[in-house]
Amino acid sequence: MDGAGYGTFVVLAVVLVLVPGPDFAVVVRNTLAGGRGRGAWSAVGITVSNVLQGTAAATGLAAVVVRVEPLFEAIRWLGVAYLGFLAVQAFRSAVRGSYPALDGDGDGDGDGDDDDGGTTAGPRARAGLRQGFLSNITNPKVLAFYLAVLPQFLGPGTAVPVLLAYALTHAVVGLGYLLLLVAVLHRARRVLARRPVRRALDAFTGCALLAFGVRLAADR
C-alpha cells in the first residue's frame, strides 16, 4: 500500500463525508427525534451499509450490480421511495408539532439517564439502525463512488485486502464524522427541541430528504 496515495485517499474521504447528503439528513432527524442513542445507531446502520458496499466493490460484486441495469435501477428507485417516505414522516412531524418533553438527560425517554436507557431504548435503537442502513444501502451512488474512486488510487490487479482497507477507511471516517455530528446535536438539543425550532428543523429535513430523493431519481 502506497503511503502517500493512502494519505491522499483519507483526505478525499474526509472531504466527501463533510458534504451533506442523505446520511447527514437521516442522522440529524434521528438524533432530534430520539436522542443521542437513536442518532448513534442510525450512524452505525449507515456504516454497516458502507462496509457491505465497500466489500462488494473490493470483491467485484458491485461491478456486476452496476452492469445489470434492471437490478441497479430497482435499487435506485427503492432508494428514491425510501427517501420520499422519510421526507413524508418529517413533514407530518412538522405539521403535528407534538414532541415529548425532554427529561434530565435531554433525551426525552423519561429515565433521566445519560445513556438513553429505559423501556423505549430498544425500539429507538432499532429504528435508528434500520433507517440508517436502508437509506444508505438503497443508494446506488455509494456503489458508484467506490467503483469510480478506488481505481484512481489503486492499479489493476491490486489485492482484495488492500481494496478492502481503502473501502473500510472511508466507512470508518464516515462513522467518526456522524458520531461527532450526533454529539454536537445532542449537546444543543435543549435549544433545538423548542417547538418552533423543532418544527422548522423537521420541515427543513423533510425538504432535504425530498430533494435528495428527486436528485437520485433524476441522476443517470
UniProtKB/TrEMBL annotation:
Main location: membrane
Residue ranges, annotated region (Disordered): 103-122
One Pfam family this sequence matches: LysE
Lineage top rank: taxon: Bacteria
Subcellular location, record wording: Cell membrane
Bias (Acidic residues): 104-117
Membrane topology note: Multi-pass membrane protein
Regions that span the bilayer: 6-28, 40-68, 74-91, 170-188
Keyword annotations from UniProtKB, A to Z: Cell membrane, Membrane, Transmembrane, Transmembrane helix
InterPro entries xref list: LeuE-type
Listed name of the protein: LysE family translocator
Organism name: Geodermatophilus maliterrae
